[in-house]
Amino acid sequence: MAPSGPTEFILIEGGRPLSGAVPIEGAKNAALPCMAAALLTADDCVIENVPAIEDVQILAQVMRVLGATVEQVDPTTWRINAAAVHTVDAPPDLVRKMRASFLVMGPLLARFGRATSCAPGGDVIGQRPIDVHWVGFGAMGAALSREGEIYSAESPRLQGASIFMDYPSHIGTENLLMAATLADGVTTMINASGEPEVVCLAGMLEAMGARIAGAGSNRLVVEGVERLHGVTHRVIPDRIEAGTFAMAAAITRGSVVLEGARPDHMEAVIWKLREAQVDVDVRDDGFRVTARRPLAAVNVQALPYPGFPTDLQSAIGVLLTQARGESVIHERVYDNRLLYVHELTRMGAEIDVRGQTAVVYGPRRLKGTDVRALDIRSGASLVLGGLVATGETRISDVWHLDRGYAHFDDKIRSLGAAYRRVVQDPQPVPASP
Ligand code: EPU
Question: Residue range 221-243: average pLDDT?
Fold first, then answer.
């Protein structure tokens, strides 16, 4: 949902190689479920390495409406206490703003025996149903109903169950995992998501007293306990932010160190960069990405982890406009995540899209023009396009970027990009005659 107020644009003069080092923030998609997990206990939960992004603020607000005390202790540390939760009805106006807000359902249902929410909002990247969450809550014995747009789930105590997940949904797994920690008996989740962010959440839950086996695999076994206690937990580094800066280094023929990034979470990305003739030097505390040779075309399939992440599909799509030859991208996670191609084509890219497949013909010279960010990741990808385009690129709807990337402007500028943000006040409405 676009914020009201002055309109912001990003202006980029392309053509400068990026160089230097950039610290990688905590992962958005791990910080959000970890915050929601604090609803499972009445004790304090301290979550460290939380990125300073809009989505964190929105979830904090959702949790405050529920009655939790949510405090930002320092720029990256949050303390949450959910002892005084007084409602289990997630506020629809906030839930509609982003997908992750639906993560409060599992913990509320497990601890308080009831939860309601509208369908969550989020980026327009394809169908985003919640059937996996719903079927799982039902299998654990919750009575499910829907009145208008409000979904309700109710059960005095969830029962451990065997759950087959039609799709290894990322937040679906997280919601069911949190719910299962306080269920009576053993829950087995088959075809679960093994994304690193799920493992991060499972680590937090285990430190709170949950009994979980199989985190990181597609089969999770959870033995429910009576109660969970407080914890201090550190969020893993953001592999999508790291991947975005890696692509920025590669596309500008630069050399950038991604400080604190976890190469073991990024094997598909590192493999594809190397295949495209980009040098990746893995170190103990991150990795360096350097582009010395001409980029080569590669084929990419966006898949659930450990496949190539859909959240970097648009970023590598932009990179491949600069690679010699034909690259084929299959987006297999979302059914409508190639919309950014339209904006890139306006910059001079040559890309054919058929269904969920894009064929990228390269290399093509990109030219700066006016383009629009459509979601968090397409916004970052248009920045990549701007970094290599001739002339000035002007990106609108940049609020998308602020939902997912902390300190993005400072970081990209520190690497040498000619990048600035301008604010334009809304045009005054002419007075009626
Ligand atoms: N799906 C179903 N049924 C469900 C849930 C999902 O069929 O009940 C399908 C969707 O239609 C979609 C696919 O599963 O085609 C993937 O959805 P998934 O549920 O795995 O995604 P998500 O949990 O809603 C999280 C991230 C996304 C990331 C995906 C895939 C968060 C808050 N969001 O979404 O992140 O793309 O996993 O890794 O964790 C982003 O950060 O920009 C972003 C979109």
Answer: 98
Element (H, E) at 316: helix 313-320
Read off the amino acid at residue 97.
K
pLDDT band at 432 (very low <50, low <70, confident <90, very high): very low
Q: Residue 427 Cα, ligand 1 centroid: separation in angstroms?
A: 37
The CA distance from 291 to 252, in Å, is 8
Which residue lies with its CA nearest to atom 31 of ligand 1? Answer: 29
Predicted local confidence at residue 121, as pLDDT: 77
Q: Whose CA is nearest to atom 11 of ligand 1?
A: 128
Mean pLDDT of 247-267: 97
The Å distance, Cα 170 to ligand 1 centre, comes to 6
Pick from 222, 163, 174, 229: nearest CA to 196 = 174
For residue 424, list its beta bridge partners. Answer: 7
**Among 265, 261, 337, residue whose Cα is nearest residue 300:** 337
CA-404 nearest atom, ligand 1: 41
d(CA 197, CA 203) in angstroms, rounded, equals: 10
Q: How far is the CA of 341 from the centre of ligand 1 (A)?
A: 20
What is the biggest distance separating any 2 CA atoms in the chain, rounded to whole angstroms?
A: 71
Contact 100, 55 (CB under 8 A): yes
E strand or H helix at 261, and its extent? none
Atom 30, ligand 1: residue with shortest CA distance: 170
38 vs 107: CA distance, rounded Å: 8
What is the distance between the alpha carbons of residues 146 and 135, in angstroms, rounded to a whole number? 14
* Ligand 1 centre distance from Cα of residue 132 (Å): 11
Specify the 3-state DSSP secondary structure of 159: strand
Record the pTM. 0.96
Decide if 69 contacts 61 (C-beta within 8 A): no
For residue 335, give the ligand 1 atom closest to its CA. 15
Nearest Cα neighbor of 36 from 205, 219, 241 is: 205
The one-letter amino acid at 85: V
Interval between CA 92 and ligand 1 midpoint (Å): 20
Asked if residue 311 lies in contact with residue 240, where contact means CB atoms within 8 angstroms, the answer is yes
The amino acid at 306: P
